[in-house]
């Protein structure tokens, strides 16, 4: 098996002759407790004739005899170093320049350099500087690629030295059960006179195999010698899972931690992205994103990206931020004119989306909507539409509301309370009207061609305004002088604001409940039917105290007749009276009424003589 061509380049000694040569394997290995044969041949200068045979010595460690290196073998004696006693044996025939050495039962202490020294007798002794380096292994070697990448075919080779002639190693792979379709192949390589048996395991590693153990066992049949080496697979793989929390919801103001765990080898650069903005990153197996005092602006899609040099992967979650409704935005308070149509807008934010409800003065108006915007449409608003409108936003986390006032402006309307009544000093006329803006009240006495209003200081005019209701009051007193046959005094009340004006004839009543009002002015100059209540019985408390007051005589002629007729229908005094008059046209009672009324009118000095004061 020695191949000269192979050995030739190995050595050329510094010796001038160039003939001191040895051929030993530079490296040779053996399993502990097995044996090793170090093949060896040597040359010496042809001029030398060995004296008394060719001898040789094997040294361990170093070549210099003067340093007394341990003797492994010596052909002249059998004195060898302690650790080689009974172990070493020269297999070669020195005379054949064959210095092949056997060491049995090698241990790790035998690892090292072995030098051969030729002893040809006399001074012809020479230690060859070339050595064989023995490695005594207690485990087989496994060739593992520097980088094992998932899903790429992997070859692992286990080596067993085969340099012990009596013992043949065998190689077995261990823990391969879980591997998908493992393939095994053996090889036997001889090199530099040393032999190595190898077994190659081929399979496609997967991420799941990362960190798993594989083993190679070397053993010698019919011995108890077993050698094992275990390796842990380090399989590189791109992120294969990016785990994040399930999408979740948090209350505004609270804290939340989003966790991300990436399965990859090596660990990925993990980052949390909010939208396309990177919030936090680290190179680790997991990363946490802590959000304190969460705001609605932080609601959205969070993506965790894992990236190592083998690939990238991402997973997203949606973080919902819950919060009670914000104060709704509603229109500014508005002032509109009766009959106008308007739309009130209310919008708010909240999560979950709030419902919106419109309330007017506490009562539900419109529909409850779940939209972001609720529009309350009011068409042709009436004065009753005036009020406080509140938009209420509610969700499960709270409620909020905003209000606005809708002010409806409208033309004046005369109230039922308007009337003239007889009082002790004369006649008191009250005029009440609502309107917005509140109506101005003015009295007009057409008979006297007198207008009485607030700004006119000449008369005793009392006004009062309460909200949209205005009240005006005047008192007319008997002047003393009576004008015979003069017309009755009519009192007109004029109510006005920017939206209209009405003029009303106030009727004189004997009882508070009876008020006669005839619209005169605004509705188009209709002729006023002056209707004067003829008989007034003033049964007031005050009058009783003032027996003998002349006005009683004047005013009250025969009130019973009229009064009884009136009592039948309080609802429509005027109509009733007129109808009675015609019904009893030929009859006495009606004539009496009429006659007495007329006489009363003529005689009614109060009418003519009353003057405002
Ligand atoms: C040297 O001796 C050994 C053992 O006897 C033998 O196996 C080997 O072939 C010899 N080498 C040469 C080159 O003759
Ligand atoms: C092991 O021993 C058995 C008998 O004991 C023998 O048949 C077999 O050849 C031996 N194997 C080796 C490798 O020496
Ligand atoms: C996310 O998962 C981690 C770990 O399981 C947990 O501690 C954390 O509270 C979770 N966060 C949310 C918002 O569920
Ligand atoms: C998260 O990573 C840290 C180191 O960055 C590690 O100590 C911890 O065990 C990991 N947690 C999990 C659940 O993997
Ligand atoms: C997440 O992965 C998808 C493909 O799986 C890719 O289109 C997207 O750009 C990735 N997103 C981020 C933020 O890396
Ligand atoms: C209320 O506001 C909305 C939008 O801001 C507007 O369209 C609407 O006309 C407003 N309504 C009133 C009565 O001002
Ligand atoms: C509505 O009017 C009332 C009474 O005039 C007032 O107290 C309140 O502040 C007003 N509200 C708004 C929103 O203008
Ligand atoms: C009423 O008085 C005004 C002046 O105060 C006068 O101009 C007007 O002509 C009078 N009208 C009547 C009908 O007398
Ligand atoms: C009140 O009446 C006088 C005349 O009688 C008039 O000049 C004045 O404008 C009136 N004022 C109002 C507020 O109507």
Automatic annotation (TrEMBL):
The chain crosses the membrane at residues 514-536. Keywords: Cell adhesion, Disulfide bond, Immunoglobulin domain, Lectin, Membrane, Signal, Transmembrane, Transmembrane helix. One of its GO terms (molecular function) is carbohydrate binding. Residues 1-18 form the signal peptide. Its main location: membrane. It is found in: Membrane. Residues 129-232, 239-320, 328-407 form the Ig-like domain. GO terms for cellular component: plasma membrane. GO terms for biological process: cell adhesion. InterPro entries: Ig-like_dom, Ig-like_dom_sf, Ig-like_fold, Ig_I-set, Ig_sub, Ig_sub2, SIGLEC. It is a single-pass type I membrane protein. Coiled coil: none annotated. Belongs to the immunoglobulin superfamily. SIGLEC (sialic acid binding Ig-like lectin) family. This is Myelin-associated glycoprotein isoform X2. It comes from Betta splendens.
């Amino acid at each position: 098996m020695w191949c000269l061509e192979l050995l030739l380049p190995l050595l050329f000694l510094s010796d001038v002759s160039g003939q001191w040569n040895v051929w030993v394997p530079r490296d040779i290995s053996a399993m502990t407790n097995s044996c090793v044969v170090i093949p060896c041949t040597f040359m010496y200068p042809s001029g030398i004739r060995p004296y008394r045979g060719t001898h040789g010595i094997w040294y361990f460690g170093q070549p210099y005899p003067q340093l007394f290196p341990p003797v492994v073998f010596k052909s002249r004696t059998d004195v060898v170093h302690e650790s080689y006693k009974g172990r070493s044996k020269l297999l070669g025939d020195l005379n054949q320049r064959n210095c092949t050495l056997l060491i049995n039962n090698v241990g790790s202490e035998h690892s090292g350099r072995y030098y051969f020294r030729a002893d040809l007798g006399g001074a012809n002794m020479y230690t060859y500087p070339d050595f064989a380096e023995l490695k005594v292994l207690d485990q087989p070697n496994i060739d593992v690629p520097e980088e094992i990448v998932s899903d790429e075919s992997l070859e692992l080779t286990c080596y067993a030295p085969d340099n012990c002639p009596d013992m043949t190693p065998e190689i077995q792979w261990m823990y391969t059960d879980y591997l998908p379709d493992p393939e095994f192949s053996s090889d036997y390589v001889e090199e530099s006179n040393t032999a190595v048996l190898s077994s190659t395991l081929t399979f496609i590693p997967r991420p799941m195999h990362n960190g798993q153990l594989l083993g190679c066992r070397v053993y010698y049949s019919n011995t108890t010698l077993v050698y094992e080496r275990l390796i842990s697979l380090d399989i590189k793989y791109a992120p294969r899972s990016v785990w994040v929390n399930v999408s979740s919801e948090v209350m505004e103001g609270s804290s939340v931690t989003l966790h991300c765990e990436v399965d990859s080898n090596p660990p990925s650069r993990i980052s949390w992205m909010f939208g396309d903005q990177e919030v936090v990153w680290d190179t680790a197996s997991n990363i946490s994103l802590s959000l304190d005092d969460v705001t609605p602006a932080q609601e959205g899609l969070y993506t965790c990206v894992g990236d190592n040099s083998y690939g990238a992967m991402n997973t997203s979650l949606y973080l919902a931020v819950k919060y009670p409704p914000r104060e709704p935005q509603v229109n500014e308070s508005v002032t509109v004119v009766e009959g106008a149509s308007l739309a009130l807008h209310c919008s708010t934010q909240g999560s979950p989306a709030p419902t919106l409800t419109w309330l007017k003065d506490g009562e539900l108006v419109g529909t409850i909507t779940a939209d972001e915007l609720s529009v309350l449409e009011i068409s042709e608003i009436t004065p009753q539409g005036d009020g406080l409108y509140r938009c209420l936003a509610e969700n499960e986390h709270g409620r909020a509301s905003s209000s606005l006032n809708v002010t409806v402006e409208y033309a004046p309307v005369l109230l039922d309370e308007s009337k003239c009544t007889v009082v002790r000093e004369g006649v008191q006329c009250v005029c009440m009207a609502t309107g917005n803006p509140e109506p101005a009240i003015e009295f007009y006495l057409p008979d006297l061609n007198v207008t009485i209003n607030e700004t006119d200081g000449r008369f005793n005019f009392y006004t009062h305004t309460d909200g949209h209701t205005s009240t005006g009051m005047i008192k007319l007193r008997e002047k003393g002088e009576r004008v015979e046959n003069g017309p009755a005094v009519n009192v007109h009340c004029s109510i006005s604001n920017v939206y209209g004006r009405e003029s009303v004839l106030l009727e004189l009543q004997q009882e508070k409940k009876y008020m006669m009002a005839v619209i005169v002015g605004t509705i188009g100059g209709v002729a006023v039917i002056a209707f004067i209540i003829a008989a007034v019985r003033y049964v007031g408390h005050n009058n009783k105290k003032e027996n003998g007051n002349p006005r009683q005589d004047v005013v009250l002629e025969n009130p019973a007749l009229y009064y009884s007729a009136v009592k039948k229908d309080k609802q429509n005094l005027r109509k009733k009276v007129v109808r009675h008059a015609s019904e009893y046209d030929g009859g006495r009672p009606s004539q009496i009424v009429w006659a007495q009324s007329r006489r009363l009118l003529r005689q009614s000095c109060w009418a003519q003589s009353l003057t405002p004061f």
